[in-house]
Amino acid sequence: MKVSAIITLKKDVLDPQGKVIHQALDGMGFENISEVRQGKYFEIDVNENDPSKAKAVVEDMCKKLLANLVIENFKIIGTQ
Q: Is pTM beyond 0.90 here?
């Protein structure tokens, strides 16, 4: 079962990559953007048939390795 997770910086953490992307978009004529924040997307294929168990496994992965919980948040966004 595939489980997707998104990891983003917490709101109070500066995002220099997002700032550079915002400036580049502004330079390309996309002037109506107020802010860009970048993050990481993971799609993990878990050997589990129960969606709640699969989500729990990926949540544990996020807590232990994929996300730096001091500066990042994570969200499990679905299973397939």
A: no
